[in-house]
Amino acid sequence: MSIKNPIAWFEIYVDDMSRAKLFYENVFAVVLEKIDDPTDVNSMMEMLAFPSNMEDYGAAGAIVKMDGYPAGGQGTIVYFNCDDCINEESRVVTAGGNVTQTKMSIGEFGFMSLITDTEGNTIGLHSMN
After folding, report:
1. What single string gives the DSSP state of each residue in 24-66?
2. Between β-strands 122-127 and 111-116, what pairing exists: parallel, antiparallel or unpaired?
3. Which of 18, 27, 51, 116 has its CA at 20 to 30 Å from residue 93's CA atom?
């Protein structure tokens, strides 16, 4: 039996899509892609997806603006894979966020940083270097 990443999708809720788009694109040096609501139920939903593909997508996800789902929840932290989390961390403040935990060793599991995005969400950065 093969071990498979059980995380198929994540959503980070935002209040200001333009501001959040700039933050994530600048910190991670990626382009977020507009996707439509797959259920076509909630016309008030805006979604911008992180780069991925369906063949080996792992933990794909998007930032989402939707009525009734405010940003800033602190119950779950999504960690973004990085070559060296200090690189992304170095772009956070310029992009409008805050570094709440600078790069630190987590022993044999590598390194991590915690940051707060422009919407009040805490996210993590992880690298082996």
Report:
1. HHHHHT---EEE--TTS--TT-EEEEPS--SSS-SSEEEEEEB
2. antiparallel
3. 51
Task: Give residues with Cβ within 8 angstroms of 1, minimum separation 6.
Answer: none
Number of residues that make up the chain:
129
**Residues 1-23: tens digit of each pLDDT:** 566 666 667 889 999 999 999 99
CA distance 38 to 11: 14
pTM over 0.85: no
In this prediction, residue 105 carries a pLDDT of: 94
CA pair distance 46, 64, nearest whole angstrom = 6
